[in-house]
Amino acid sequence: MKRYSLFAIAREALTHHQGWERAWRSPAPKPGYDVVIIGAGGHGLATAYYLGRNHGIRNVAILEKGWLGGGNTGRNTTIIRSNYLQDPSAAIYEKSRSLYETLSQDLNFNVMFSPRGVMMLAQTHHEVRGYLRTAHANALQGVVTEFISPARVKELCPILNIDGPRYPVLGALWQPRGGTGRHDAVAWGYARACSAMGMDIIQQCEVTGVRSENGKVTGVETTKGHIGTGKLGIVVAGHSGQVAQMAGFRLPVESMALQALVSEPIKPCMDVVVMANTVHGYMSQSDKGEMVIGGGTDGFNNYTQRGSFQHIEETLRALIETFPMLSRLKMLRQWGGIVDMTGDRSPIISKTPLGNCFINCGWGTGGFKAIPGSGWAMAELIAKGEPSPLAAAFDMGRFREGRFIDESVAAGVAH
Ligand SMILES: Cc1cc2nc3c(=O)[nH]c(=O)nc-3n(C[C@H](O)[C@H](O)[C@H](O)COP(=O)(O)OP(=O)(O)OC[C@H]3O[C@@H](n4cnc5c(N)ncnc54)[C@H](O)[C@@H]3O)c2cc1C
């Protein structure tokens, strides 16, 4: 793989950009691999990357029914933070956030990580108590956050109305090294690095069945034929229930559409991420100038990756009292992605009833930020057959045994 560098850009500028290599190969599937990963979203690709980089396992195929990064990875609002309440969550999300700090250098691909700071507004006394508790927990976990005053909120984000008609801002939980990244670039960067290690990313290849013998997976049926495998990783987010059913087990996961929208581009007016859980909405400004606005999930299970008028209305009605300037903006586009929700709003990184089959899902509304850390932990689980301390608490057995990792507050407004 040719490295991207300033010199490469200069060279290509002089030769009409004719010399760039394809970022990744598009091979036909081989009859079999040491590891097959279903799902070329961020989590599947990161799993493959760390399998190669950390464990030297490179005879790997990543199977994708659509195009890589075309699922939730390319549909999210790109917020990255690690200010969770429970210890196992803070550990994996902070590992992930810290990997983001150097991801562009690691992958030699600019993922545009922008640690501009994330604030979660406290707009009720209940929220003040909750965020103070999280700030104390974060201090013990080594996650840098602080509870800031309304005056500091206004200083960091002048377009915010802190004297809202219903819910004045009483403070905020502030994570200065949280921020955003470019979602497609994260998928593309991992894909390029996986391909360079000799791994096969096979797009337009839907898995339609899982073959097993004596409690072990032997291969998968796909729209491109049968592919044998020594180990299987299922990393398909909103479609986890369907693929688990093919493998013969059930998951405590529900699939729902989560929606977002962006405005027309405007001049820079906001250089932090703001989440307003009480009114239910959040916003940041993209590098192109669009205001990126996140809403909630549909109130019913479905697999349609679409937006709805009701959500535009609900989300904007909620946010206009916090950001009055929104009332004068036109909205440009709106979309949905199918998220996989667990009861405790924490992910699953787990062995399954099939000996050589592992599952990574349940990131729900907030898994973009977790891509590097989740890939790191899932790769270790697949390589060693046992979870690392990072992943141990997230096994499926916790739902049977009542060991919930309750992040319903941290995941409150999604993300
Ligand atoms: C609107 C919205 C906003 C969000 N905002 C944020 C945010 O701000 N911050 C944050 O941290 N998270 C956010 N999220 C959540 C985040 O996007 C997801 O948790 C994360 O992208 C999941 O990544 P993934 O790789 O597991 O799934 P995906 O990217 O969905 O990848 C799974 C892949 O599996 C493929 N697949 C499914 N079934 C099969 C099959 N049978 N055969 C082959 N391939 C298959 C799919 O096509 C898909 O490409 C948001 C999500 C949405 C929808």
The molecules bound to the chains, other than polymers, are: flavin-adenine dinucleotide
Question: Which shape, going by the Cα principal axes?
Answer: globular
Write the element-wise H/E pattern from the N-terminal end onward. Answer: HEHEEHHEHEHEEHEEEEHEEEEHEEEHH
The span between the termini is 34 Å
Continuous helix count = 11
Q: What's the total number of strands?
A: 18
Beta-strand percentage? 25-35%
Average of per-residue pLDDT values: 95
The profile of the biggest β sheet is: 8 strands, mixed
Q: What portion of residues is helical?
A: 25-40%
Based on CA atoms alone, the radius of gyration comes out at 21 Å
Protein structure class: alpha/beta
What's a concise summary of this model?
With 415 residues, the chain is α/β, with parallel strands linked by helices. The protein has helices at residues 6-14, 42-55, 87-101, 103-107, 125-141, 150-156, 183-196, 240-247, 309-320, 371-384, 397-401; strands spanning 32-38, 60-63, 79-80, 118-122, 146-148, 171-175, 179-180, 200-202, 207-213, 216-222, 225-234, 253-265, 273-276, 281-285, 290-297, 331-342, 348-351, 357-361. The chain is 29% helix and 26% strand.
